[in-house]
């Protein structure tokens, strides 16, 4: 565990375990997972599919309850959805019956507060969506939908942004563009970001640290520091150091996969 | 900021008829392929004139007696000439339809919303709902008349019994469409159960609710007319039995025409509502 132990970490995952009850018995998805995320840090979590990445992230968001251990935000245990935590889902998850403006108003409606319009407008400009407010999600491209979802997540100014494979469904060009956008937003806001991805390249481009989870049950197998300077240009990303790091992470994941038990998909937990 | 990701290939059915509620044959009404030119309009009118005129001509040439099939012109004359006589009956039918439908649809909607929250209760109730949906409620009208007499009550009850289960079964299908990611989204902002219902479940169910309301209304109309035919001295159904027993066929068909118009109006009404409020569902 690499931790800035001098100060309280922004987010501390302490021996987090999660057991899913399935038809064929209990399934251990997370096994005493521990990791710290410092304030203003971008940490990516990678690992073989089904290793509990999403479970871990949803537990951080307070939407899933842990079976054991705890997750602390600024030293306080997370017991439910927290206003300081923003969530970006796989596939933008916009509400199709609302136009873009209404989608971004949604969090404010739920919280019954007035939208912070200057900030929202700024974010929309930032991601290049100004003038699209009246469009419905189906009228927007996948990349634009995910931009809208990022604006929605950032609109309440969370101090932590959790991103669950947000760009997995996008083509690689759009994906790179979205990565640059995340970096730009981070350089502006310095929001702490936990980012789940299948793409090692994406993880290295964005993160200060890459955490590799082992195959089920999910455990922190290893952490890699990513020391490259920001913004990370294409030249930086093409250096031998990046290449070596990519390979090291890949080896770690493949090694973990070999040791892992056969893949069984956990039953989707009922969340309402 | 460039927009190189704004490639149209991402868009689902950018044009065309993708937007409507998925009611079959609606395209036939709305002009599925879209009426493009005056030439098409002229052609459609020409065919209509040809068909109606052809029927008129055939009936006259073969001297079909009016008690078997009156000519379109005789029906038109009856519709216009006897409309003041038919109109009060139309109002009676509308009262029964609106009254019964309002009661049935409200109960159906509330039941659907509540029952889908409790999967176990739903399993217990499901067979009875199916029974209510599949049994023609018209069968109960004689019994209802025995109990409530020949006034509005048995008819309104019959309409409610016919439309309610239709609304319920479709609305329940809508409410059952749970999208966990969207509910998680709402919950991540701390939404209450009630907020999740009104802001996620209800809008998601809306297209199916509209389908249910439309089918319920059509079934309600059917049942209202049927109940009127069984007993009582008023309503369009009563006019049908009266006119046919008096062999006033032009008037009879005028009433049939009014009934078809009512049915089409119900259809168009819900089609337009769907287009306005549920067009997000492709």
Notes on the protein architecture:
- The complex is a heterodimer of chains A (272) and B (282).
- By secondary structure, chain A is an alpha/beta fold.
- Helices cover 34% and strands 23% of the residues of chain A.
- The longest helix of chain A has 20 residues, at 240-259.
- The radius of gyration of chain A is 18 Å and the shape is globular.
- In chain A, strands 6-7-8-3-9-10 form a six-stranded mixed β-sheet, with helices on both faces.
- Chain A has eight helices and ten strands.
- In chain A, helix 5 (172-189) links the parallel strand 7 (160-164) and strand 8.
- With 282 residues, chain B is mainly alpha-helical.
- Chain B has a domain at 81-277: MetI-like fold (Orthogonal Bundle), CATH 1.10.3720.10.
- In chain B, 73% of the residues lie in helices and 0% in strands.
- Chain B has helices at 26-30, 38-61, 72-81, 83-115, 119-134, 141-148, 152-176, 180-188, 193-230, 236-245, 249-277.
- In chain B, helix 9 runs antiparallel to helix 11.
- The interface between A and B is large, with 43 and 37 residues.
């Amino acid at each position: 565990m690499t931790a800035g132990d001098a100060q309280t970490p922004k987010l501390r995952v302490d021996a987090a375990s999660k057991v899913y009850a399935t038809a064929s018995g209990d399934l251990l998805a997370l096994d005493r997972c521990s990791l710290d995320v410092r304030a203003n840090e971008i940490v990516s979590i990678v690992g073989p599919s089904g290793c509990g990445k999403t479970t871990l992230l949803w537990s951080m968001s307070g939407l899933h309850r842990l079976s054991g251990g705890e997750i602390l935000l600024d030293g306080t245990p997370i017991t439910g959805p927290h206003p300081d935590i923003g969530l970006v889902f796989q596939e933008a998850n916009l509400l199709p019956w609302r136009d873009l403006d209404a989608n971004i108003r949604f969090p404010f409606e739920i919280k019954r507060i007035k939208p912070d319009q200057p900030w929202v407008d700024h974010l929309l400009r930032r991601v290049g969506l100004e003038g699209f407010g009246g469009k419905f999600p189906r009228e927007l491209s996948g990349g634009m939908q995910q931009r809208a979802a990022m604006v929605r997540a950032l609109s309440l100014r969370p101090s932590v942004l959790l991103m669950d494979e947000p760009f997995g469904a996008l083509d690689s060009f759009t994906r790179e563009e979205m990565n640059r956008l995340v970096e730009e937003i981070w350089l502006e806001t310095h929001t702490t970001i936990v980012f789940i991805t299948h793409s090692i390249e994406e993880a290295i481009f964005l993160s200060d640290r890459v955490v590799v989870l082992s195959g089920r049950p999910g455990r922190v197998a290893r952490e890699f520091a990513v020391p490259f300077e920001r913004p990370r240009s294409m030249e930086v990303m093409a250096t031998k150091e990046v290449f070596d790091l990519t390979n090291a992470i890949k080896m770690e994941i493949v090694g973990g996969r070999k040791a892992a038990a056969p893949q069984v998909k956990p039953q989707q937990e009922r969340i309402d | 900021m460039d927009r190189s990701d704004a490639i149209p290939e991402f868009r689902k059915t950018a044009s065309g008829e993708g937007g409507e509620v998925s009611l079959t044959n609606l395209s036939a009404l709305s002009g599925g392929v879209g009426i493009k030119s005056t030439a098409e309009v002229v052609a459609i009118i020409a065919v209509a004139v040809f068909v109606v005129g052809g029927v008129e001509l055939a009936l006259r040439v073969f001297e079909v007696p009016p008690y078997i099939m009156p000519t379109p012109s005789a029906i038109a004359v009856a519709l216009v000439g006897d409309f003041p006589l038919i109109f009060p009956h139309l109002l009676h039918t509308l009262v029964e339809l609106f009254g019964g439908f309002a009661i049935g649809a409200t109960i159906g909607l509330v039941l659907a919303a509540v029952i889908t929250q409790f999967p176990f209760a739903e399993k217990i109730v499901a067979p009875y709902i199916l029974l209510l949906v599949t049994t023609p409620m018209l069968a109960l009208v004689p019994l209802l008349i025995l109990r409530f007499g020949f006034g509005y009550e048995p008819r309104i009850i019959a309409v409610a019994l016919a439309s309610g289960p239709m609304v319920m079964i479709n609305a329940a299908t809508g409410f059952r469409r749970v999208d966990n990611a969207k509910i998680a989204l709402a919950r991540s902002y701390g939404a209450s159960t009630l907020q999740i219902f009104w802001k996620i479940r209800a809008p998601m169910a809306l297209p199916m609710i509209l389908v249910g309301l439309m089918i319920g209304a059509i079934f309600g109309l059917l049942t209202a007319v049927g109940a009127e035919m069984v007993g009582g001295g008023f309503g369009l159904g009563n006019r049908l039995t009266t006119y046919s027993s008096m062999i006033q066929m032009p008037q009879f068909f005028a009433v049939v025409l009014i009934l078809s118009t009512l049915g089409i109006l119900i259809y168009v009404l819900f089609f337009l509502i769907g287009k306005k409020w549920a067009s997000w569902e492709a």
